[in-house]
Amino acid sequence: MKKIIPILIIGLFLISGSCEKNPFVEKFYTITIINQSSQMIYFLGYDKFSEIQYPDTTLPIQKPNATILGHGAKFFIDKREPWSEEIDELPADTISFFFFDKAVFEDSLWTEIKNDYLILKRYDLSLQDLENLDFNIPYPPVETMEGMQIYPPE
Predict the structure, then answer these.
(1) What CA–CA distance (Å, rounded) separates 9 from 138?
(2) Residues 124-138 as b or e (16 or more Cβ within 10 Å = b)
(3) Residue 123 neighbours by CB distance under 10 Å
(4) I want to staple 85 with a disulfide (CB 3.0 to 4.6 A). Which of 27, 31, 51, 81 is the partner?
């Protein structure tokens, strides 16, 4: 028994050291939402599991659980598969991201927000857009986002 444990440990090191990709480290693919504004905002993103997907850009019937971001805060959306695979499963090659004013999101009825489309911005980003942004999505839009689908336009 005393000889088996060291042999197993040495074997484990040999296996993990001989691979290009470490089998003990899980890879995540991340989109980072960055609030560069001076205000607190709410953020909502649609993916392949959302009831609504681009090209439908309506807001959901029920008020969603959105994420609040303070000034300078970041929110990380991690996936175990590359975003290209995620986007391939969508009806279009585009993911929608919504940004809401904190006071509007918290103090208004959702039906009012939905019916009057009370959003700060909506980004409809393709895989190429995400790659050009290095998967870092800032709010408010930055100069490098010129030409990307942003509503309402500036």
Answers:
(1) 46
(2) bbbbebbeebeeebb
(3) 24
(4) 81
